[in-house]
């Protein structure tokens, strides 16, 4: 045979080389796309698996027991996506490849982020450090030029970090202990479009700190203990909200859930709006937390007949009509957002301006039609019918 004519040393070399080629994927991992994508998640690993191919592009090490990966990943020079979320890391691994585009490290025990941890990651686009124990992060000016999305939610920040990379488009600082935004700390973020500050401890914020956010389209401020009685400190924020072109979810000291120029309707009549909380990056550790339910706002014009209004309310709930100018939070890279949809549990608010003009016959006709309407509008129609009967 062919191998019989070859020297014994060459045969042995070929066998060894062939074994190395076949062993590019460790037995505890699953590999795809020519072994360039390795999934080693949920295997109870305490150390990095051996025999991973050096030119892998995606490596998933999430949901393991990893404590230390310092300098263990530096030789993966082609690595683009690294997921080390839900392990036992106390700091971001040193020596990470500089070719990385996406780093996910949520659900660990990170307590700080030093300037050298990210200083040389020129290609990084998304950084997810949510659900850790971070109290401070240090960024060097003019580093991370490609970073578009930064997730620092569910940590222990007391103030908004300064020197955040200037090209950021999405920043999630929700579910922290934030009480202040230092003046000038947001001035460099001229490209920021989505800013999540809900579920913190703000009492008041000077609206001027947001004035340099020229590209802002959405900001969330709900679930904060705003000091509404302190009119002097709250007036600046309220003035900014009224003049801003951004959509504000959770207007402080207001009965409206959504305000800002993007929510205003200049046409009058009917106006539908669907809103859901768009967390930046799903987190399994907080999966039990229900998302903010959709809120449908229905305004009834005086010129709309009562029976016609019921039909249009039903159509609006079933058709999931979105308001003009509304744009849901974008998803950058691997980060996801909650779909904008209406569930049967949708919280519905109905404002009626023409109820006093309704006749008894219209009221009876209205009540007879409630059984045939869609479940999504049951709450709205019950409120509508009760209001009509009370005014008959």
UniProtKB/TrEMBL annotation:
GO biological process, one term: neuron projection regeneration
Gene3D superfamilies in the record: Ribonuclease Inhibitor
Keyword Metal-binding: no
Ranges of compositional bias, category Polar residues: 333-351
Top-rank taxon: Eukaryota
Region (Disordered): 309-364
Residues annotated as domain LRRNT: 24-58
UniProt xrefs under SMART domains: LRR_TYP (SM00369), LRRNT (SM00013)
Protein name stated in the entry: Oligodendrocyte myelin glycoprotein
Species this protein is from: Scleropages formosus
């Amino acid at each position: 045979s062919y191998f019989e004519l070859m020297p014994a040393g060459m045969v042995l070399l070929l066998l060894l080389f062939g074994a190395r080629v076949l062993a590019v994927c460790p037995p505890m991992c699953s590999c795809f796309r020519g072994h360039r994508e390795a999934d080693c998640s949920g295997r109870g690993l305490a150390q990095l698996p051996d025999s991973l191919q050096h030119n892998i592009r995606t490596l998933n090490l999430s949901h393991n027991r990893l404590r230390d990966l310092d300098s263990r990943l530096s030789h993966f020079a082609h690595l683009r996506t690294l997921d080390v979320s839900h392990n036992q890391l106390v700091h971001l691994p040193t020596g990470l490849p500089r070719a990385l585009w996406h780093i996910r490290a949520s659900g660990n025990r990170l307590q700080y982020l030093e300037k050298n941890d990210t200083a040389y990651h020129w290609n990084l686009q998304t950084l997810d450090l949510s659900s850790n124990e971070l109290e401070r992060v240090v960024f060097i000016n003019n580093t991370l030029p490609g970073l578009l999305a930064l997730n620092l939610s569910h940590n222990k920040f007391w103030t908004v970090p300064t020197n955040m990379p200037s090209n950021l488009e999405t920043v999630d600082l929700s579910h922290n202990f934030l009480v202040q935004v230092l003046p000038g700390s947001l001035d460099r973020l001229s490209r920021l479009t989505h800013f999540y500050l809900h579920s913190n401890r703000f009492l008041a914020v000077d609206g001027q700190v947001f004035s340099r956010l020229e590209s802002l389209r959405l900001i969330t401020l709900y679930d904060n203990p705003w000091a509404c009685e302190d009119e002097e400190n709250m007036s600046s924020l309220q003035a900014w909200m009224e003049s801003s072109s951004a959509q504000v979810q959770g207007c402080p000291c207001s009965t409206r859930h959504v305000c800002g120029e993007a929510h205003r309707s200049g046409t009058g009549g009917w106006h539908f709006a669907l809103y859901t909380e768009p967390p930046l990056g799903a987190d399994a550790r907080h999966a039990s937390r229900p998302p903010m339910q959709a809120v449908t706002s229905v305004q009834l014009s005086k010129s709309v007949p009562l029976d016609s209004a019921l039909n249009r309310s039903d159509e609006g709930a079933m058709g999931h009509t979105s308001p003009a100018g509304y744009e849901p939070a974008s998803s950058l890279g691997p980060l996801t957002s909650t779909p904008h949809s209406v569930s049967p549990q949708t919280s519905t608010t109905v404002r009626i301006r023409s109820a006093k003009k309704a006749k008894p016959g219209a009221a009876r006709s209205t009540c007879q039609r409630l059984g045939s309407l869609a479940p999504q509008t049951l709450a709205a129609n019950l409120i509508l019918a009760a209001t009509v009967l009370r005014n008959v």
